[in-house]
Design brief:
CATH topology of the largest domain: Rossmann fold
Shape: elongated
Number of domains: 7
Number of strands: 27
Oligomer: single chain
Radius of gyration: 39 Å
C-alpha cells in the first residue's frame, strides 16, 4: 500500500491500525461516519454502491474516500461480508469532547463470513459455521463453530468423510494451515471463503492448552474428544482465530462435541444433490426441506436441517421421535397450545449468544424476557401429557423465574434499540435515575413555576423565561419594567426593547438540566449492563431451553405435516425389510395442479426373496420419481417424521446411494458417462448389508451394448455380493435386463404401466409386476413435437430392426436398412401423396380446360387433407 506523503494525524492513525489487520477492509469511524480509504474505498464503493471521492490529506497528496453514516452499519456491513470480505470495525474509544488531540480509536470487532452476530448478515433458518481443517497424513481433522449459537463440533476421518461434512455443514468460511495451501486446493470440491493461518497455530500442545483454558478444564476427556488429535488441533485453531478477530466475549461456547459417522445414515454428496434435500436442481424446483419445514422458530428450522442431513440409524431414538409425533397428532389441543407459545419465543439461541458477547440491545433483551415467559406454560403442558418422553422434555426446560422477575422489575416495556435514547429502566429501580428523569421530563413545569414566582416577586407581568445556545436560560424584561429588576439579577444582554438577565437559581437549574440527561444516560447504561450481567449467569440454562424448544418445534412441524398431508406413522425396526404401501412422492404430490392426485405405488424389498427390483418403462413414465420417493420416504422415517404412505415397514437403512440423472462435470473435463461411472464405482466400493441403492438408467452414456453389459454386470454384482445384500431399485430402458430374473432368484421385474390407445400412449404411473417389452420411444418423441418425417423414418428403422431380431450381427442389420435417397422427391417423402401421384399421372395437361384444372386442383387439395388425417391416425 503506497502511503501519501506528509500524512495528517488522522491518516497516520489510520495506517497504524490498518497495518495490524492485513487483508481486512477497515471501516474507520470519523465523527458520525464510517470512512474507508484508498484501496478499501475503491472496493467498498463497488460493493456498496456508494460514491467514491478524493480528498486532500496532506500538502501534496489526496486519497480515495468512501463512507456512510454510522447508523447505517447494519445496512452496509452484511453486503461487505457476503461479498467475502473480512471487515475490521474501528470505533472511537473515547468521547471526542473529552479527547486531547486526536480521538483514540481501535478495532472493536473483525467480522468475517464465518464470524458474525449481526441479524442482517445471518439467515435465521440456517447456521453460520466457521470451519477449520487439518491435514494429517491419511486422517483429517475438522471443527465447526457457529458463533451466533455457541455450537462447537469436531470430527476426524478420511478425505471422503471430511468432504461430506463440509458439504453438509456448508461453512461460510474455512481456516487452514498456510503451509498446506496445496493440500487444501486439491481437497476442496466447492468454492469456500478461506483464510490461511500461520503454521505455529496448528500445534497439538498449543491447541490442547487453548481449549482447556477456554473451558476451564485440565483435560478434554469429559467432552469425549481426548483421542481425536487432528480434531483437537482444528478446534484450537478456531479459538485462536476468535482471539485474532477481537471476539473475546465467548462465554456461550461452553462445550465441544464430537461428530460420529456411525451414528447417522451415510448420504454421499451425489445422493444429497440427486434427492434435492436442501436445494432443487432445476430453477423453480422445490427441495424436500421446503415441504417438510413447518417449524415456527428459527431454532427449530436450523435443527430440522441438521436432522435431515444426518438421519438417525439407531432404532430406539427414531422410535422415540415417532412416538412423540404420534402423541401430538392424536392431541390436537396440545399441539395448538404449544404452537401458540412457540410463536412468541423467537430466536433465544442467538439472543443469548448476543448476551454473552455483550451485544444485545434493550429491544432484544425485552424479546428475550418475553420468550422466557413462555417456558413455564410449555413446561406445564408437557408435564400433563401422558407420554413419559414429553415429560422428560419438560424436565430439561428451566423456567428462569428469578431472572424473569429481575428483568420484569428493571426493564421498560418495549424499550428503544439504542442504549443512549433513554427509556430503558423502569421507575423505582434507582432513586437517582428517577430524580434525573423527573428533572428532564418535568423541567418545563419547573420553569413555569419559576417564572410565576419571579413575576409576582418583581411585579413584572410580562416577564418570560427563554433559552438560546449562547446564554442558556435567561429572564427577559421589557424596557417598560426594567426599573423593577432586583439587584440579585445579573444582566447578560441588552436589546432594543428589552433586557435579558440570569439568576443564581436559574443558573443552578441550567447546570442541573444540562448534565441531567448525560448523567441519566450513563446511569441507565450502567444499570442495563448490570442486567446483562445477571442474564449472563443463566446462559447454560437458556441455551438448554433453546435446544429443547428447537426439538419440540421439529416434532410440531412433523405433526402438522402429517395431519395436513395424510401421512402415517412408519414402523421402524432392526429388520432388513422395506415394505411401503401406497407410497407417494412428498414433494411432487404437493406441487401438482389443483384437482390432480398423485398415483401411489407399493414397494417391497428384502434380502430373501426380492432384493433387487428391475424397473422398465418409457421415459416420462415416472421411474425416476418412483426411485426418489422411496429414498425420501426412508429418510423421513429415520429423522422421526410420518411418511407419505398408507403403511410403511422400514428396517433400518445405514447408507443411501443414488445414481439418478446426468451430472456433467465439463469444467473438469469429465463427461456424463465418466461422472456416471465415477459415482457408480463409489457406490460399489461402499456397500453395506443395510444399504439402499437407487440406480436410474445406468449405462445410457455409452453405446447400447456397452451400456447393457455394464448394467447387467452391476445387477449380478449386487445380487451375488458375498457380504452385502443391498436393497436395490434399478430403473432401466434396457429390456434385456429382464432376463436376469430367470438366473438370479432375488431379482424381480417390474414396469411402470402405460396404456396405448389408437396409437397414442397414456402414462398410468403405476408400478406392476413383469418387465416391459416396449419402450414407446417413438410415441414419446411424437408427444414432444418431433417432425413427422423423422418419426416416419424412425418407425421404418424400428420395424426393420425388430424383424431382424438377433439373427444378424449389428453391422449386417445396419447394412440391410432401407436407404433414404439423398434428394427425396415430393411424393416419396410422404405416403399421403401416393393417391395424388396416381391422379396426376392420368391427367393430360395439354387438353385440360382452365375450369377443369381448378376442379382437379380442389380435388387434389381434398385428397391431401384426407391423406394427412389418415396418416396421423
Amino acid at each position: 500500500m503506497s502511503k501519501p506523503v506528509e500524512l495528517t494525524p488522522l491518516m497516520k492513525q489510520y495506517f497504524s491500525i490498518k497495518e495490524k489487520y492485513p487483508g481486512a477492509l477497515l471501516l474507520f469511524r470519523v465523527g458520525d461516519f464510517y470512512e474507508t480509504f484508498l484501496e478499501d474505498a475503491v472496493k467498498a464503493s463497488k460493493v456498496l454502491g456508494i460514491v467514491l471521492t478524493k480528498r486532500s490529506n496532506g500538502s501534496a497528496s489526496s486519497v480515495e474516500l468512501a463512507g456512510f453514516p454510522h447508523h447505517s452499519l447494519e445496512l452496509y456491513l452484511p453486503k461487505l461480508v457476503k461479498a467475502g470480505y473480512r471487515v475490521a470495525i474501528c470505533d472511537q474509544l473515547e468521547d471526542p469532547k473529552q479527547a486531547k488531540g486526536i480521538v483514540q480509536r481501535g478495532v472493536t470487532e473483525l467480522v468475517t463470513p464465518g464470524l458474525s452476530l449481526s441479524d442482517a448478515v445471518l439467515d435465521g433458518k440456517s447456521n453460520n459455521y466457521l470451519a477449520a481443517i487439518v491435514f494429517n497424513k491419511e486422517i483429517l481433522g475438522v471443527s465447526f463453530l457457529d458463533l451466533s449459537t455457541g455450537e462447537f463440533l469436531l470430527a476426524e476421518g478420511d478425505h471422503e468423510y471430511i468432504q461430506k461434512l463440509l458439504q453438509n455443514f456448508t461453512p461460510s468460511e474455512v481456516i487452514f494451515n498456510k503451509k498446506q495451501q496445496t493440500l487444501w486446493n486439491d481437497f476442496a470440491k466447492d468454492d469456500f471463503h478461506t483464510y490461511a493461518l500461520e503454521d505455529w497455530a496448528f500445534q497439538f500442545d498449543y491447541a490442547y492448552g487453548l481449549l482447556n483454558t477456554h473451558f476451564g478444564t485440565s483435560s478434554l476427556k469429559g467432552f469425549g474428544v481426548d483421542h481425536y488429535p487432528a480434531g483437537i488441533i482444528s478446534a484450537g485453531v478456531i479459538l485462536r482465530y476468535l482471539a485474532e478477530t477481537e471476539h473475546k466475549e465467548v462465554k456461550h461456547i461452553h462445550a465441544i462435541a464430537r461428530l460420529e459417522a456411525h451414528q447417522y445414515v451415510w448420504l454421499d454428496p451425489f445422493t444429497i444433490k440427486a434427492l434435492e434435500l436442501m436445494t432443487p436442481q432445476q430453477s423453480g424446483g422445490t427441495a424436500l426441506i421446503e415441504i417438510i419445514d413447518k417449524t415456527i422458530t428459527s431454532m427449530g428450522a436450523r435443527l430440522l436441517k441438521k436432522w435431515l442431513l444426518f438421519p438417525l440409524k439407531e432404532v430406539l431414538p427414531i422410535q422415540n421421535r415417532l412416538s412423540i409425533v404420534e402423541y401430538i397428532v392424536d392431541h390436537i389441543a396440545l399441539e395448538e397450545l404449544l404452537q401458540s407459545h412457540l410463536k412468541q419465543i423467537g430466536d433465544i439461541e442467538r439472543l443469548i449468544s448476543k448476551v454473552a458477547a455483550g451485544r444485545i440491545n434493550p429491544r432484544e433483551m425485552f424479546t428475550l424476557k418475553r420468550a422466557l415467559e413462555q417456558i413455564h406454560p410449555i413446561q406445564e403442558a408437557l408435564e400433563q401429557a401422558a407420554l413419559p418422553l414429553l415429560q422428560k422434555l419438560s424436565e430439561r426446560l428451566h423456567n428462569c423465574h428469578s431472572l424473569i422477575g429481575n428483568m420484569d422489575h428493571k426493564l421498560q416495556e418495549n424499550p428503544p434499540i439504542l442504549t443512549n435514547q433513554g427509556g430503558i429502566i423502569k421507575p423505582g429501580v434507582n432513586d437517582r435515575l428517577d430524580e434525573l428523569n423527573t428533572m428532564i421530563h418535568h423541567g418545563k413545569d419547573y420553569l413555569i413555576q419559576l417564572q410565576q414566582k419571579e413575576s409576582q416577586r418583581t411585579n413584572i407581568p410580562s416577564l418570560k423565561i427563554s433559552y438560546n445556545r449562547v446564554f442558556g436560560y435567561y429572564l427577559e424584561v421589557p424596557n417598560a419594567h426594567k426599573e423593577k429588576v432586583p439587584q440579585d439579577w445579573m444582566r447578560k444582554q441588552t436589546l432594543t426593547n428589552a433586557e435579558r438577565y440570569i439568576t443564581e437559581e436559574l443558573k443552578h437549574y441550567e447546570e442541573n438540566i444540562i448534565h441531567a440527561a448525560e448523567e441519566a444516560q450513563r446511569l441507565e447504561q450502567q444499570l442495563y449492563q448490570e442486567l446483562v450481567q445477571d442474564v449472563m449467569e443463566c446462559i447454560p440454562q437458556i441455551q438448554q431451553n433453546a435446544k429443547s424448544i428447537a426439538q419440540l418445534d421439529c416434532y410440531l412441524s412433523f405433526s402438522k405435516q402429517a395431519r395436513d398431508q395424510g401421512y402415517n406413522k412408519p414402523m421402524v425396526d432392526d429388520s432388513t425389510i422395506l415394505d411401503l404401501k401406497d407410497n407417494r412422492h412428498p414433494v411432487i404430490e404437493q406441487r401438482l395442479p389443483i384437482g390432480t392426485t398423485y398415483t401411489p405405488n407399493d414397494i417391497k424389498l428384502d434380502q430373501e426373496q426380492q432384493q433387487i427390483m428391475v424397473i422398465t418403462g418409457p421415459n416420462m413414465a415416472g421411474k425416476s420419481a418412483l426411485l426418489r420417493q422411496v429414498a425420501l420416504t426412508v429418510l423421513m422415517a429415520q429423522i422421526g417424521s410420518f411418511v407419505p404412505a398408507t403403511s410403511a415397514h422400514i428396517g433400518i437403512v445405514d447408507k443411501i446411494f443414488t445414481r439418478v440423472g446426468a451430472s456433467d462435470n465439463i469444467a473438469q473435463g469429465e463427461s456424463t458417462f465418466m461422472m456416471e461411472m465415477t459415482e457408480t464405482a463409489s457406490i460399489m466400493h461402499n456397500l453395506s448389508n443395510r444399504s439402499l441403492i437407487l440406480m436410474d438408467e445406468i449405462g445410457r452414456g455409452t453405446s447400447t451394448y456397452d451400456g447393457i453389459s455394464i448394467a447387467w454386470a452391476l445387477v449380478e454384482y449386487l445380487h451375488n455380493h458375498l457380504h452385502s445384500k443391498a436393497k436395490t431399485l434399478f430403473a432401466t430402458h434396457y429390456h434385456e435386463l429382464n432376463e436376469l430374473s430367470k438366473e438370479l432368484p432375488r431379482v424381480k421385474n417390474f414396469n411402470v404401466a402405460v396404456q396405448e390407445i389408437n396409437g397414442k400412449i397414456l402414462f398410468l404411473h403405476k408400478l406392476v409386476a413383469g418387465g416391459s417389452q416396449h419402450s414407446f420411444g417413438i410415441h414419446v418423441a411424437q408427444m414432444a413435437g418431433m417432425p413427422a418425417e423423422i418419426l416416419d423414418r424412425a418407425a421404418e428403422v424400428l420395424s426393420h430392426l425388430s424383424a431382424a431380431g438377433g439373427k444378424m450381427h449389428t453391422k449386417s442389420i445396419v447394412e440391410k436398412l432401407p436407404k433414404i435417397p439423398y434428394q427425396l422427391s415430393l411424393f416419396e417423402e410422404n405416403k399421403a401423396f401416393n393417391p395424388i401421384k396416381s391422379l396426376l399421372d392420368t391427367i393430360d395437361i395439354n387438353t385440360l380446360a382452365p375450369v377443369e384444372a381448378l376442379l382437379k386442383l380442389n380435388e387434389i387439395k381434398n385428397m391431401l387433407k384426407e391423406g394427412k388425417n389418415k396418416y396421423k391416425s
